[in-house]
Amino acid sequence: MTEKLSARQQRKRRHEQMLRSYEKNRRRNLLAKPGVHDFILVLDHLKAGYNVAKIFRSAEAFGAREVQLIGIGPFDPSPAKGAFRQVPARFFEKFEESHHNLMQQDYTLYALSPDNSQTLHEESFPQKSAFIFGHEEIGLSFSPSKYPDIRYLRIPQFGRVESLNVSIAASIVMYEYTRQMHR
User: Fold this and answer.
1) Domains in the chain, ordered, with CATH?
2) Which of the listed residues 12, 97, 150, 170 has the most CB atoms within 10 Å of its CB?
């Protein structure tokens, strides 16, 4: 008769399985090719959980060039449905490194801010656009005043909720970018 595993042992086993899956997918990611569009997503210290994988899934669907992960540790790639192997990922410890990389490639940077007057659909995106998404609870890891080149936009909302889930917001931004590129 097999012994039942304790809840703690089950969590540990699931975590170990997730880490093996993450490492396997990260190695496969080295072969990923850029998508058909030139936009880049910058995930700034997001929780290494469900949202990161979901963003990869949407990034693959919308043809993202790459996803830059800043200060994000291992995450469960299974909600990405294989997209983590398809969309190139670049890893940075600090936002400054990602910013420098994007500036060298002549990208225009955008971040979302619910109190900005400029809405997403009012902006005409250049082909080389990078979209920065901050931590789900604390926002961006940097002071906006340190990076005056970043443009801030908002997604129009009409309900009482102050913000959208980060993976939903990223999908809306990717949709608007691709809509503009295919007019």
Assistant:
1) 7-181 (3.40.1280.10)
2) 170
